[in-house]
# Entry
Amino acid sequence: MKFAVINDLHAHFDPGSKATGYLEANRRAEWMLGQFEKGGSMTDVDFVILAGDMIHGENLPTITTEMKAFKERLDRLVLPYYPVCGNHEIQQAEGNADYEQPYRDAFGDDRFDYVIPADPVEIVVLNNAGTFHVTKERREERYLALKRLLATRPKVPKILVCHIPLVCVRDHDVLEESFGFISYRCLDRELLDLVEAPDSPVKLVISGHLHLTGMTERKGIKHLSTAGTASFPHDYALLEITNDDIQIEVCNLPEYLHEPASNIHGPPRYPEGYTDEAHFSHQTYLCGAAAERSFKIPLK
# Structure
């Protein structure tokens, strides 16, 4: 079993869209999606997961038209694809029927919290796009959804995919400052409690949202966040699953597509690029060390 995870494309394919977005985001999104079309370089994967912020979307009218245009673009892919709701798909209005409707229209009512069969593992998709910008009722619904999905076939190892990371993949205080938004990690701690329970089947959590690539391990569970294509350093992930292990490789878009000015953790957004204790250079802070970009997780 082999699949790709792409995220944070921030595409605005609707010709009438007035969204500003990220510099040349559409160009990189077109290249990325083109790899899964006829003649593309990655048509050998079994499927692709779109881990949130597929569109840029700035308000409900823009979200509606951009989502429709993006779905039409996806229909050119020659392999199955599975969406994950990101904050830009719903403008963080998780649980709001009006804001969720364009996503439902594009992908169906069953593509917020669901399972992707990928023997010998299961991939659990969870909508946490609003992080703590949600009602008490929606927060409870999300918790119960994850509890139910993890309890299904509990002996089968799980990969959890959600748009917003459950843990910090950089030093907490530095990441909070460099990201600049309160959603630098999911603040609903009860989700992490489920993932880290003693009998939890979760081996790996994959997310995006941060616009940097990093991996950290906590209580034996690896957490990977990939930068996505909109922001420099423009990364995606390839995963191969055997009966023995999960092999993860983070890949970089071709250099001719790179746009350093799209970096949100350094210039031009900030005077200097951020670093932390484990990442002494800004490049490593953005891209992760070698061990964060290529690693294995044993299944036995």
User: Anything to note?
Assistant: Residues 2-298 form a domain with the Purple Acid Phosphatase; chain A, domain 2 fold (CATH 3.60.21.10). The chain has nine helices and twelve strands.
